[in-house]
Design goal:
CATH architecture of the domain at 71-145: Orthogonal Bundle
Structural class: mainly alpha
Strand order of the largest sheet: 1-2
Protein name: PP14C phosphatase
Oligomer: single chain
Number of strands: 2
Strand content: under 5%
Pfam families: PP1_inhibitor (PF05361)
InterPro entries: CPI-17 (IPR008025), CPI-17_sf (IPR036658)
Radius of gyration: 31 Å
CATH topology of the domain at 71-145: DNA polymerase, domain 1
GO cellular component, one term: cytoplasm
Keywords: Acetylation, Phosphoprotein, Protein phosphatase inhibitor
Length: about 160
C-alpha cells in the first residue's frame, strides 16, 4: 500500500501543519508508481468526488426521517403541552416538580366523541384541584379544536 498526497498538502504534511489529507491507495500493476501517477491522481479525484456524493446522499436520506412527521402539528402539540403545564402549575399553585400526578392525554381527548365528553374527561382528571377549572377546560377545548391525533410515523419501503 502506498500513500499519495497532493502538492500543497504534502508540503503541509512535511511542515507538520494541521488539516492535511492523506489518501491511501493500493499499488497498481507491477507495484511501482512510475508512469501511472497522472491517471491514478485523476482516479483518486473521481473517487473522492464519488465519496462526497455518497455523503450528501446519506445526509439527504437522514433528512427524510423528519419529513415522515408533520412538523407543524408537532410544534402545535409542543406549544399546547407547554401551555398545559403552565396552567396546571397555576391551578395547583406549585411548580411542575411538586405537582400531583395529573395526566392529560391530548390524543385521548381527541378520541372523544364530542366536546361534552372531552370536558367530562378533563373534569375527572382535575378532580383533586381546589381551584375552579372551568376556564382552563374551556380554553383547552378551544385550543385542541382542529388538531389531529399523532399517529406513529409510517415506514417507507426503500
Amino acid at each position: 500500500m502506498s500513500v499519495a498526497t497532493g502538492g500543497s498538502e504534502a508540503a503541509a504534511a512535511a511542515g507538520g501543519g494541521g488539516g492535511s489529507r492523506v489518501f491511501f491507495q493500493s499499488p497498481r500493476g507491477g507495484g511501482g508508481s512510475g508512469g501511472s501517477s497522472g491517471s491514478s491522481s485523476r482516479e483518486d479525484s473521481v473517487s473522492a468526488a464519488a465519496a462526497v456524493v455518497q455523503v450528501q446522499q446519506r445526509r439527504h436520506q437522514q433528512g427524510k426521517v423528519t419529513v415522515k412527521y408533520d412538523r407543524k402539528e408537532l410544534r402545535k402539540r409542543l406549544v399546547l403541552e407547554e401551555w398545559i403545564v403552565e396552567q396546571l402549575g397555576q391551578l395547583y399553585g406549585c411548580e411542575e416538580e411538586e405537582m400531583p400526578e395529573v395526566e392529560i392525554d391530548i390524543d385521548d381527548l381527541l378520541d372523544a366523541a364530542n366536546e361534552e365528553e372531552r370536558a367530562l374527561k378533563l373534569q375527572e382528571t382535575l378532580v383533586d384541584c381546589y381551584k375552579p377549572t372551568e376556564e382552563f377546560i374551556k380554553e383547552l377545548l378551544t385550543r385542541i379544536r382542529g388538531m389531529r391525533k399523532l399517529s406513529p410515523p409510517q415506514k417507507k419501503s426503500i
